Amino acid sequence: MQIVFDKVNYIYNIGTSFEMHALKDVSFSIGKGEFVGLIGHTGSGKSTLIQHMNGLVKATEGSIYFNGMDIYDKDYSLRELRSKVGLVFQYPEHQLFETTVFKDVNFGPRNLGLDKLEADLRTYEALKMVGIGDELLDVSPFELSGGQKRRIAIAGILAMKPEVLILDEPTAGLDPKGRDDILDQIAYLHKESNITVILVTHSMEDVAKYVDRVMVMNKGSLAMDGTVREIFTRFRELEEMQLAAPQVTYVMNELRSRGFGVRTDVINVSEARDELLKVFGRE
Amino acid sequence: MIKVEDLAFEYIRRDEDGNVESISRAIDGISMEIARGDFVAILGANGSGKSTLAKHINAILYPTEGTVWVNGLDTREEKNLWDIRQSAGMVFQNPDNQIIASIVEEDVGFGPENLGIPTDEIWERVEKSLKSVGMLEFRNMSPNKLSGGQKQRIAIAGIMAMKPQCIVLDEPTAMLDPSGRKEVLSTIMNLNKAEKVTVLLITHHMDEVIYADKVLVMDNGRIVMQGTPRQVFSMVEELKKYRLDVPQVTLLAYELRKAGIMVPEGILTVDELVDSIAGYIS
Q: Is residue B16 very low, low, confident or very high in pLDDT (cuts 50, 70, 90)?
């Protein structure tokens, strides 16, 4: 397993009246090449969890292993961990700072100490991966659209060739087409390069469309962990955690409760359509 | 309440010597009217000009061409500025950028205090606005202990305390989780129905506009579609052209129609779809 959490606890402001148990006995493992969706309401511990994955925050108790090595071992290089586990924060375009697109993406690999040739090569590759054409290389990143800026920020992480890509709400604030474009690109990347992807999102529709496995955080604990289909059939429990299933799940469940023999574990529009057409005898 | 006539707005970019480098026309000829008490939603891709339009309504931006009237007042006239900003309040995307005080009730009171309202009345207004957004019990708390949805409701209360006739909300739920979005949306709907506040809601979330009286779709600085949510959402292909989509149930209904199952066009909610499918089968 690539990432292993073993009874991880994180408590901050210990001993003050603001003491907060942000992660409670969180244990799981993620294998290489998985596409995982991480959901949970605001304050459930999602962001704290992903910050543990690349060593930005240190667990109060418990152990974390990356590729079989204990990241809290005194000989372990956190610097190397951070180049292997790329974390794209929310609104990453706020972190763009260079004068051209190329320089901005180039900053990461150069900072890793790579020689110029290798760093440049990776920069070209990364920009290609996120669908940014050569005509934009010398443009200031600040002149681009919101969706483009975000791709460039993601390219900056990809240029470090991480083995794991963690994205914290990569589509917040984008229009529907921009959302689809970015996620399609990430799905393509996942398929082509077998990179592990962890997607933190509030959109259940995106979870249903893109990920294989869903982890649900609630009040600092890992409340559910399973396939998309398993998780969405437990939509009543999701609601208790202030989450929800996609609209089509509700349509099918409501039809079922009115006595129609439809499958209720559908998770997207095309599945729902096919299932309903079967009921209508139009298969 | 709000009248916009032939509005155009240009961003002029200059180089270091002050020569004009480029001119982009963010708004390109918009005319519209919003009546008192209306709930109007604006949809449009990133960069379509939605926010630029919104900023004209409380005189943060002024027209390059055309005119905007709020309550009959021309936004270009400086003497109208304070009256306009008081009658059309604005709520932005990021709750953390809009809260300034360290106690909820002081934050809400900041607006009316600035208007020179007597202290007793400020407290009355603070209480009433916090009640209207369902946050009265948090009045003595520090805003940084609140969730995103709660903070956004505080920001709305701060606007309400200035007794505006109109609230313009620019993607108020973009940074919130599903329950925060629901909270804020029901607050907005309640203000519109109970307090008769005119609402102009800009959003990327299609499911938030289904309760609006009217939906405008913007593209490239123009209004390209308008109508009731049902009318607008029955044009699935056209919306896709403008980088938008429709709620999942609307899409499912549309797909069923394409396959020959004639459920009504422009279905907006789960219940509507379930009812019409159930009706169709039996």
A: confident
Indicate the pLDDT class of residue B144, thresholds 50, 70 and 90: confident
Chain A touched by B177 (CB under 8 Å): yes
Q: Which two tokens stand for residue A98?
A: 């260079």
A187 interfaces chain B, CB cutoff of 8 Å:
no
Q: What is the mean pLDDT of chain B?
A: 90
Per the CB < 8 A criterion, the answer to whether B255 and A270 are in contact is: yes
Q: Do A42 and B148 touch (CB under 8 A)?
A: yes
Task: Assign 3-class secondary structure to B139-207.
Answer: CCCCHHHCCHHHHHHHHHHHHHCCCCCEEEEECCCCCCCHHHHHHHHHHHHHHHHHCCCEEEEECCCHH
- Cβ(B262)–Cβ(A276) under 8 Å? no
Q: Is A214 helix (H, G, I), strand (E, B) or coil?
A: strand
A48, two tokens: 């704290």
C-alpha span between A107 and A96 (Å, rounded): 10
Phi, psi of A129 (to 5 degrees): -60, -35
Query: Mind listing the pLDDT tens digit for each residue in B151-198?
Result: 989 999 999 998 899 999 999 988 788 888 888 898 899 889 988 999
Please tell me which of the candidates B46, B243, B248 has its beta carbon nearest to residue A248.
B248
Q: Tens of pLDDT along A138-149?
A: 999 988 877 889
Interchain contact A41–B (C-beta under 8 A):
yes
Extract the tokens encoding A36: 């995982």
CB contact under 8 A, A178 and B46: yes
Rounded to an integer, what distance in angstroms lies between the CA atom of residue B115 and that of residue B117?
6
Number of C-alpha atoms within 13 angstroms, CB side, residue A239? 9
- Nearest residue of B to residue A254 by CA position? B274
- Which tens digits make up the pLDDT trace of A65-120? 999 999 999 999 998 899 899 999 888 888 888 999 999 999 999 988 899 999 99
| pLDDT for res A283 | 54
Residue B23 has pLDDT above 90, yes or no: no
Q: Rounded distance, CA B11 to CA B14, Å?
A: 10
Which residues 28-47 in chain B show a CB within 8 A of chain A?
44-47
- Helix crossing, B119-132 with B148-160: angle to 10°? 140
Tokens of B109: 């009171």
Question: What gap in Å lies between CA B138 and CA B131, rounded to an integer?
Answer: 10
Q: What's the CA gap between A46 and A215, in Å, rounded?
A: 10
Q: State the pTM of this model.
A: 0.86
Q: Which of B93, B180, B244 sits opposite A176 (nearest CB)?
A: B244
Contacts of B261 in chain A (CB under 8 A): 276-277, 280, 282
Question: In percent, how much of chain A has pLDDT > 90?
Answer: 66
Q: Which chain B residues are closer than 8 Å to A279 by Cβ?
A: 281
What distance lies between CA A252 and its chain's CA centroid? 28
As for the ipTM of the complex, it is 0.83
Asked if the model's pLDDT at residue B46 lies above 90, the reply is no
Angle between helices B104-114 and B119-132 (to 10 degrees): 120
Q: Which positions in chain B touch A271 (Cβ < 8 Å)? A: none
User: Nearest CA to CA, how far is B135 from chain A (Å)?
Assistant: 18
Judge whether A236 is closer than 8 Å to chain B, CB to CB.
no
